[in-house]
Amino acid sequence: MQLVDFSYAAIAVLVVGLAVGAIVDLRTREVDDRLWLAIALLGGGLQGVVVGAGGTVPLLVWLLVLAFVIQHLLPWDEMISEQRSAWAGYLELVTYVGVGVILAIVGWRDGVGPTGLPVAAIAVYVSVLLARALFEANLLYGGADAKAVMVAAAAVPFDTMTLLAPNGPAASILSFYPFAVTVLMNGALAAIVVPLALVLRNARHGHWNGLRTFTGYPLSVEQLPDRFVWVTDPTFRRDDDIESSDDDRQLRIRLRDELRAKGVAFVWVTPQVPFVVLLAVGAILGAVFGNLVADAFALL
Question: What is the DSSP letter of 221?
Fold first, then answer.
């Protein structure tokens, strides 16, 4: 069941965009919203051409969900005065509910399909809800991670052009849930490489610290300001409100000074692996192999 057909260009937009985001995130731990906006506009525009072939109704619905994604990438809430800061939350809630209601009305009136409510629009809406829920639950650490998932849905709603996915009943699952879910699941599986790499690094240097051997490594206190890491020694944990990479670096500087004053030379740290990197890997794996979990079931 092929719900949405899209060109390789849309996949390329997403993969290249996420790759650029991964490189930037590795270097600075911050990704400019303009990159996500470019992916949403280019990829979403390509999908709009496909969806619009069904008529005016599906095209308008698609533009609605695309605008729904884009509003997360624009600083419209900063334009609201501090005295009315609560309004931003209310407006966003109205937007979430309103878009869902409109989709439900269109689906009830015109049906779900190419000439009514596009299944691609449902996929985007569900992906946005999922990304927001994961972000609010702190399962997606930064806003860039959630935005990456949202624009992934706008650019590639469904993965119907997987290159090397195996045939089988389970493989048809790919046609029923958003590609953003595939990106998330593949990225989570790719994260397994991180503890394995840390164990190998620690084994090579003869470092062992129980379970921390799988989550971190010892680092010189003097190097703290210049490394994207969290200090995992409970004695020196902090719950500072970190909003930017500069805030994070200032925290590491303060920790270095405190540790230096206590005579501590080395401390165990956990590397700050940008999840955007894992999402980029997940998108590449998804474009080539599909959802790795679905593939595994298809091989059973």
Answer: G
